[in-house]
Design a protein that fits this description.
Layout: H1 6-67, H2 70-73, H3 77-90, E1 94-100, E2 106-108, H4 123-129, E3 134-140, E4 147-156, E5 162-171, H5 172-180, E6 191-194, E7 225-226, E8 232-240, E9 245-252, H6 253-304, H7 322-349, H8 360-377, E10 381-388, H9 391-398, H10 400-417, E11 423-428, E12 431-437, H11 441-456, E13 461-462, E14 465-466, E15 471-477, H12 488-505, E16 511-513
Parallel strand pairs: 15-16
Antiparallel strand pairs: 1-2, 1-5, 3-4, 4-5, 6-9, 7-8, 8-9, 10-12, 10-15, 11-12, 13-14
Helix pairs in contact: 1-6, 6-7, 9-10, 10-11
């Protein structure tokens, strides 16, 4: 019986050790690759969720705007019919727009026969009776038989009594198309499922559920699974619409690990040959390569995380191989250049080109930060919403160049009047907003009046003709309990905007303070849109 020699035994042990090391190395790389992919998916889904929630908020805001028009509040049916047709022509996402009276029967509905349909048992009608705008779950329309989502808003008559509701039906296909447009690549678009069942919205009977954990944001490590198509994927879901829906994204495990597998195969082929011939040289080279590679890899991670300024580690380039030295220096120069360009892009993306003020994009971040600080500190905070009176007339009579000059001068007056701690933003068109921290209603009204008087003194002539400039200002303070929009900032802006509307109604060129008793607040938030507001003039 042959007995294995000591050399053969040592070779076997060496091969076994190498195999175990390679298996462990593969396991670590695989886990890290899956973890990194999952972190990327979570970050992407957070941005996608913001886009979907904003899209839903815009659709709801459109319906709320219709419910507050004079024709609807007076129940002027001919005017409502005309306005509803115009609305549907201008808003392609909506399949229908319906007015329902206080008894729950449709009155203005282009899809139902005369006499209407009784909707008094629908949840959106019950919510409307409570004064709440509402976004329904996925439904099948009673008359159309189509998959839809309902956006509804109560109607209050001029006396403040419940007069029914207006709802708009948006096709589920339009919602799916919007979500699908957020795809990162053509092969991994996000999609919506019912949170309670894990099924796609209004899925046919027999459709398999998505096997996500109940709280997919708290997954303890990556958990691949077989999706409905039988592919092994990583999945991530974030809740939408108060947890009723999940925004889900799946990424094939083969796509996540494909590059790693190819790299490992190449590494095995090269390393097997090299280790047999050049093991001593490789050992010495490894000591010179390992530390710089680890430091450069850490540097690339910091760059990916957005830390550009101090991303370059201090290394002794003289101890590196020429290739690593070039890689290290190139990474350092790249980090410096990226930091400069990203900083400039961030500044430009948050600045209005005409006035140099912050724009609405920056308002969502900086405004929320200022309001949040005041709420946590228990300090007052005020919002001033300013709008140029008869700005369209200025553009029509004196030209857009004069209109731009008026906007620049108004911005200069605002900046010369407010404090350095106040946040000033051009909302769009001729509308501006000021977030004034540590400012109560009395001081905010005084600030608004100073700005209004300073604007009246603008001496601007065009072709020998004086250009009259005046503004209307709405003022609101930070409420203890937000009732408009999705948070304290949206609530503050909405109330200041409503006060501005009152200033316009009262004759313009004046300052009006929001008063809760004069302006009843709806129960559900209404998100502001990025589109230009209707001309208040």
């Amino acid at each position: 019986m042959a007995v294995p020699s000591r050399r053969n035994s040592g070779s076997i042990r060496c091969c076994s050790s190498c195999a175990l090391s390679l298996a462990a190395f593969y396991g670590v790389l695989r886990t890290e690759g899956l973890n990194r992919a999952q972190r990327e998916m979570h970050a992407e889904l957070r941005h996608h969720r913001f886009d979907v929630e904003r899209w839903l908020g815009y659709r709801l805001a459109d319906v709320v705007h219709v419910s507050r028009t004079d024709a609807v509040r007076r129940v002027d049916l001919p005017a409502m019919t005309r306005d509803f047709h115009a609305f549907l022509d201008a808003h392609g996402d909506f399949r229908s727009l319906v007015y329902v009276d206080a008894d729950g029967r449709t009155v203005v509905d282009f899809d139902t026969p005369e006499g209407g349909v009784d909707l008094s048992d629908r949840e959106y009608f019950l919510r409307a009776r409570q004064g709440q705008p509402f976004i329904s779950r996925a439904l099948v329309g009673r008359t159309s038989g189509k998959a839809i989502v309902i956006f509804s808003s109560p109607v209050m008559n001029p006396q403040g009594d419940f007069a029914g509701l207006v709802f708009g039906a948006v096709r589920i296909d339009a919602l799916h198309e919007m979500v699908s447009s957020l795809r990162r690549t053509p092969v991994d678009p996000p999609f919506l499922v019912e949170a309670a069942t894990g099924l796609p919205l209004l899925a046919p009977e027999g459709t398999p559920a998505i096997p996500l954990p109940a709280d997919s944001t708290a997954i303890d490590g990556p958990v691949p699974y077989l999706n409905r198509d039988g592919h092994r994927v990583l999945g991530m879901g974030l809740p939408l619409k108060n947890g009723e829906w999940l925004l889900v994204q799946e990424r094939a495990v083969s796509d996540v690990l494909g590059d790693m597998h190819r790299l490992l195969l190449l590494l095995l082929a090269v390393s097997g040959l090299t280790m047999a011939v050049l093991t001593p040289f490789l050992l010495r080279l490894a000591r010179r390569v390992t530390e710089p590679i680890e430091r450069i890899s850490a540097m690339s991670e910091r760059i990916m995380a957005g830390e550009y300024g101090n991303a370059c580690p201090g290394l002794d380039a003289a101890q590196m191989t020429p290739e690593l030295e070039r890689l290290y220096r190139n990474f350092c120069r790249m980090a410096e250049r990226i930091g400069i360009h990203v900083g400039e892009l961030e500044r430009l993306s948050g600045t209005d080109d005409l006035t140099g003020l912050a724009n609405r994009r920056l308002l969502a971040e900086e405004g929320a930060r200022v309001v949040g600080i005041c709420r946590r500190a228990g300090q007052p905070c005020a919002c001033l919403m300013l709008d140029l009176d008869h700005f369209k007339h200025i553009n029509d009579v004196h030209g857009h160049a004069t209109g731009d000059e008026v906007l620049r001068r108004l911005a200069a007056i605002i900046m010369s009047t407010v404090r350095s701690s106040d946040f000033v933003v051009r909302m769009g068109g001729e509308e501006f907003a000021i977030i004034a921290p540590n400012t109560d209603a009395v001081r905010a009204m005084a600030l608004a009046e100073r700005i209004r008087r300073n604007v009246e003194r603008i001496d601007l002539r065009q072709g020998g003709m004086p250009v009259p400039v005046a503004i209307s200002v709405g003022v609101a303070g930070l409420a203890a309990v937000p009732r408009h929009g999705s948070g304290p900032l949206e609530d503050l802006l909405a109330r200041a905007d409503h006060a501005l509307y009152r200033a316009k109604q009262a004759g313009r060129n004046r300052v009006v303070l929001w008063e809760e008793t004069v302006h009843p607040a709806p129960e559900d938030p209404v998100e502001r849109t990025d589109a230009e507001p209707p001309d208040r003039d």
